[in-house]
């Protein structure tokens, strides 16, 4: 790149780059490094710009690869950067802009070279390529690089002069972690992970976790002008990022806005998710970043709680974190973070359960479920599992029926002028079940939906009439679908052709439908058993569609639970039949009065509906590919179309 290099077009003609890639060794003390690091090329901020740089340097990389075994210039480059990195904190304090600028350029060069090599080599080979050998020792420069990047993010303050350096550190560390993850999934081992989780890098695990989480919580603002300077001539200090802006801005994707390029908070969260979702089940050494994330304490809590793990050495304002999470649940990175905290961070979970503004979180989650057709399935699952985790708390299940939601505009099926938060939750979850049964028949999805409703059922109170209609309508729809599937199975048994489905598929559909029907009946029974006097509209809806009970009563799988619903239905139907002019208001009033004298002892006792979310036995098999799919889609790094899949998914086979 060099001092005269300011555009992609003349990269291949730059004498300083040819010196690096050529056949003549450069030692770490060579003055040529200062010239090499004094370039004015725009450091890429988007994946498109990174792709252009990778393509433009392909020829130079081939030259470097052919000569590097003899020259070891990549090792020398890395040693020069590492030496400079140890002085960065002092340089930032002294406002030495030229030194910071050149060091950032050096790191960018390391990242570009590393980006080429990770497409070709595994971790062990890269460790050897980036190593420094002396007479009796061999220094692992990549391990040192990982440690230095952590120290930069922790120790060097984030400000205008260092913003680009911070961003490059995040990007380069992400590349190192990708190489480590590829190795880890092959044989459960990784030199880089061991360094960061158990070696020198682990010393700063708590501080790095706090730093990244603070960037996210505070939505750390990094103005684009800190990363992209307007073109100015002459001074290399003011020309920190000048050369290629006009060219790249013409070619940048329209979807990559200025705000996206400077979204440092989201990139920090992405790095945190990568660090905390690997080595989570490692027996020989634990993940200190995960420990820190799942045990930090509330800085606003006057009671000082001793940390469970040594790495959990920091406190953070839970209220700020809670607010940020609620505001950004449309982002699946945020949803995954919230899932991790609710599932395994006991103190933060208790804080959420008792939060006075719980509707912010619940409404955001319900909105994601409502828009499920437009979201990736993993995001939908995570949102639903969070609701299931919330529903495990009886206080939460009770409180959501005391919160009134007015005119939720995102609920477009019909106008809801006023509805309880609990009623809205039941409505959206029931809608999700119906949509899933009709379109996808995803057993995992409807099982979690039903478990959430079941946890809430004993606390149903004053449900909106429309919510009650949809809940009972779902029961009717599923019953009709079950009847149709049974008829198809009978036709198949007689030898009649059934288009589009095998007998095995039909029997599987029948099993799913009966499971959902049974659970819905138990949910209605739980609501009537525990909250009969508070559910007049639900009783009314069941009476209005009581013919569905006549059908289900004849099925052995449902007879016991339908008997309870029959008891309720027959009792109130008897009272209503005595009305001379039974209008809606008169029927509801009769139901309300009848609840006082209802003989609850006639209802058969069923086990309490209580479900808890349990992770799979090997959670990493889901979460590692999921996290890297988010890296591929939301980071500014350049990934080839199949790189994530080839590097991660195929390694597990």
TrEMBL record:
The keyword Plastid does not apply. One of its GO terms (cellular component) is Golgi apparatus. GO terms for biological process: Golgi organization. Keywords: Lipoprotein, Myristate. Belongs to the dymeclin family. PANTHER family: DYMECLIN. This is Dymeclin.
